[in-house]
Design goal:
Blueprint (H helix, E strand, L loop, with lengths): L1 H34 L5 H23 L3 H8 L3 H27 L12 H6 L2 H16 L8 H5 L1 H16 L1 H5 L1 H45 L1
């Protein structure tokens, strides 16, 4: 009974720490966003969608490296928690270019710009969106493409790089706020580290499975 209470309290503390950290991150970005000189409402709304969609995608991608810990903290399947954040990110990021196209009456922004590498990266928002959509679809259809879905789903990381570069080169928020630029670059670094950690953890897991299989075969041969 006492051990169960200790484990329950430990889980609650981790929950509070994680939720507080995420809340602090979102609140910090929101305060930086809202306290700077504001322009017309519609333009600020479009920037809000992009900023918080990208931020949510970062959070979702980092959490993907900690599936076991997420389950332990929330007591719910990782996919359930992950999908809530990921779908929120997808919604915000998708509505950003749709409303931009409507407001500026220009649907050409949905087409990648191949004039030069610099132009491509400046307007990398559209390829970033398509990569995110493709990665999301792969996640939902993983049972139908079990051998390939992880590779396609990993395009999220490329999309994040495109999104940050697009924001730095053309986003008014990044150009007017060094703090926002630093936060998103740090999030990109953390996501890259999380990606590497996830690959390392999967490698170790597969290695343990192979070792168990080898030991089992040796045991069966001896018997």
């Amino acid at each position: 009974m006492q051990i169960s209470l200790v484990l329950y309290m430990e889980k609650k503390v981790k929950q509070i720490i994680l939720i507080s950290s995420l809340s602090a991150l979102y609140l910090t970005v929101f305060l930086i966003f809202i306290l700077r000189p504001l322009g017309p409402f519609i333009e600020e709304f479009l920037r809000f969608l992009a900023l918080f969609g990208l931020l949510s995608l970062f959070v979702s991608s980092i959490m993907a490296a900690f599936t076991r810990e997420t389950f332990q903290i929330f007591g719910k399947p990782f996919k359930k928690v992950h999908h809530i954040i990921a779908l929120t990110a997808l919604g915000l990021i998708t509505f950003h270019p749709i409303f931009v196209a409507i407001f500026y009456s220009d649907a050409s922004l949905f087409l990648p710009n191949f004039d030069s590498l610099s132009s491509f990266m400046t307007f990398a928002g559209s390829p970033s969106l398509y990569l995110i959509l493709l990665a999301t679809l792969a996640g939902f259809f993983q049972r139908k493409i079990p051998k390939f879905w992880r590779y396609i789903h990993g395009l999220n990381y490329v999309a994040l790089i495109f999104g940050v570069i697009h924001g730095i080169k053309i986003g008014a928020d990044f150009s007017s706020s060094s703090a926002l630029k630093i936060i998103y670059i740090l999030m990109l670094v953390l996501t890259t580290v999380a990606f590497g950690f996830k690959r390392y953890r999967n490698h170790k897991k597969k290695k343990r499975i192979r070792e168990k299989q080898v030991k089992k075969k040796e045991k069966d041969r001896i018997m």
